[in-house]
Every structure is written in structure tokens, then in C-alpha cells.
């Protein structure tokens, strides 16, 4: 059975799959990234994991994978196939595409984790059918993926879509990027967690707890939440002005709050637009499988394989 290898590398864990020609997930597996052992060990773990998946495909489907796709965090040079830098993994200038291709003996595509997840959401997830979309996951930080006609724009230097570093509160909270008042310092899941923990007095409280408190009518939580929503709306309207997407896809941990987030967010964006066309604002559909599915799409694109028009189902 024709298939490709898909790998999604995170700061603590790796998700992988063998993906069939029709987009079906034939086999899934997870491993620890092992970043505590250092960047060289992480690279070895990735190569070993990919080799195991390659062997699994031969054993169970009678044929080796035809290609592989891998999504990684940090700064990625997709054209040259290099993992340039990732703070949470500690690596610099790793020729990951070449290393994987040498180990597996098949063509390999390398992508940025958020852009790769955005590719999956755009083609087979919440943005399916939209010629222009913006995917914004709200997690520890905030990033973005700009979708154009079935592909995701990486920019001239690999920084396209970094919406989390739009300044929404000039002279505001310092950001590790060197600016002050960046969007992710106010509207990421970690920012909401920090703000709510300070207000409620529980250092272990997080954004999910804040969302629950909002749903129960806690006015303190409502204020924390609204401040985050307002900052997010400010950043999104800036992005809408520049990009004019047809669909705006919101994912990540904060989006798990559902309508507690989406109802006030749609209202806040609607109040801010003037001449801009209001896009559909929808939750992401693929959850934490988006990166892996996107990596599979990158691999299949290397082969010129047709892209599935349906969301893949897991059979094994």
C-alpha cells in the first residue's frame, strides 16, 4: 500500500503517522522528544523514530514509504531544509531534511510546525474550500499561518505569520522578542493563565480555569478574559487589514473554551472593522493532529499525490 511518513516534533513529544494515498492515517505513534539529553540526542531520536516508522511500513504494508514530511518548531528554512533555531530544543542550523533523506532513502519535506498545521487546517480542516485563510493557534505563544490557494506562505526569511509579535499595547509588557506590548503577552493561553492566577490568588490556576470561571459568571474572570479578547481582536484586525482572509481559524489551547471565546471575539472584531471585509471566524477542526496531518500533506506534495478532500480517519 502506497504511503508516506509524517512527523510532528514538539518541545516534549513527537507525533507520527503513516499516511495512505487517500489521506487515511494507517498507523500512529508517539515518542518523547528527549530534549533534556541535548540537541544532538533530539536529532538522533527523530532519525531513529523515522527509521522505525519506515520499517513498520515495510513489515505491515509490504512496501516502504515513498516520502516523508516533518514539522518542527522555531525558525525553519524550508527551502534549504534546515532547522535553523529552536529555543525549546536547543538546536541551531541542523540540516534535518538531508539527514532524514540519507537515513530513509526517500525524498523529505521540512516545514514549520504552525505553518504545517495551518496547511492541514486549510486543506482538510476548518479552512477547507477557502482560497485565503489565516490560522492562529493560541497556545504558550501566538503564531500564524497565511494560507493562499492551498499552500502556506513562509515569507522571504521564514517569518511570515508571526502575528503574536504585532504590538497591540505600545509601551506595554516587555516581550522576549525585544519589543513591548506584543499580542502574545496579552492573549496567549500562558498570558491568560498568568493574569488569572494573579487575580484569583491561585498560582496553579490556568486559562482553562479562567474560562470556566467566566462561564460561571465570575466578574474578575470576565475582566481578565475580556482584556485578552480585546487585545486579540486588535491584533486580528491588523492582520485582516493586511491579509484580507476569507476565513480566520482560531486554534490552540485557548480555543478549547469554545463559545466562551468565540462569541465575544466575533463581537470584538466586528466592532473594530470599518472598511475591511469580516471573515468567517471559526474554531480549528483538527486539534493536536494538525501538525502531523500537515507533515503528511507536505510529503504527498513531493510525489504529486492528490490531496484528500475529506478529513482522514484513523484505521489503526
What does this structure look like?
There is one protein chain. The protein is α/β, with parallel strands linked by helices and 316 residues long. The protein has two domains: 3-117 and 288-303, Nucleotidyltransferase, domain 5; 129-284, ATPase, nucleotide binding domain (Nucleotidyltransferase, domain 5), CATH 3.30.420. The chain is 39% helix and 21% strand. It contains nine helices and 13 strands. The chain has helices spanning 39-61, 96-104, 113-124, 184-187, 189-200, 207-215, 219-243, 259-272, 290-303; strands at 3-9, 13-20, 25-32, 68-72, 75-77, 82-86, 91-94, 108-112, 132-137, 145-148, 151-153, 247-251, 280-283. The strands form three sheets. Strands 3-2-1-4-8 form a five-stranded mixed sheet, sandwiched between helices. A five-stranded mixed sheet has the order 11-10-9-12-13, covered by helices on one side. Strands 5-6-7 form a three-stranded antiparallel sheet, with helices on one face. The two termini are 14 Å apart.
